[in-house]
């Protein structure tokens, strides 16, 4: 399950994957005002802007998962429902951690929505540790939205 650079033809299916994953994992635990801003179009717009930094697993036009790195942060990490339990998430995480290390990052971090127990279990199983609760400025179509999250960290640089 090798990861690859995302292509333009991946944007629409990735937007649906991201929107569906967000609804599944976040809609019941995050504020109403943030839910209203998380439209399919908003995800597609963010993906178009991030295309050079997107890595995916799956065939062109039918990706199963993606990650997006921003500086020293594993900024987005989503796996389609159909790919869960198949090893795709572990392969994608290995690719993300390798990409962070290749950028010279020593300790990477990611934000996990408070209450997203499934994601938290996966991150912990993957060697990430919950460092603290903090408020992060979350991107939306209406500007930044302050969101309290679990901050996970992991050393990705070789010792």
Descriptive overview:
- This protein is an alpha+beta fold and 159 residues long.
- It has one domain: Aminopeptidase (3-Layer(aba) Sandwich), CATH 3.40.630.
- The chain is 36% helix and 33% strand.
- It has 5 helices and 7 strands, in the order βαααβββαβαββ.
- It has helices at 11-26, 32-37, 40-50, 88-102, 117-125; strands at 3-5, 54-57, 65-70, 73-79, 107-113, 129-140, 143-155.
- Strands 1-2-3-4 form a 4-stranded antiparallel sheet, with helices on both faces. A 3-stranded antiparallel sheet has the order 5-7-6.
- Helix 1 (11-26) packs across helix 3.
- It is globular, with a radius of gyration of 15 Å.
In brief:
The chain is α+β, with helices and mostly antiparallel strands. The chain is built from five helices and seven strands.
In the CATH hierarchy, the third-tier topology is known as Aminopeptidase
How would you characterize the largest beta sheet?
4 strands, antiparallel
Low-confidence stretches: none
Instruction: State the domain count.
Output: 1
Shape: globular
Measured by DSSP, the beta-strand proportion falls in 25-35%
Count of runs of 4 or more consecutive helical residues: 5
Alpha-beta content class? alpha+beta
For CATH, the homologous superfamily is named as: Gcn5-related N-acetyltransferase (GNAT)
CATH architecture: 3-Layer(aba) Sandwich
Which sequence of strands runs across the widest sheet?
A: 1-2-3-4
| CATH class division | Alpha Beta
Q: Nearest-angstrom radius of gyration? A: 15 Å
Terminal CA distance: 27 Å
Q: How many DSSP E strands?
A: 7
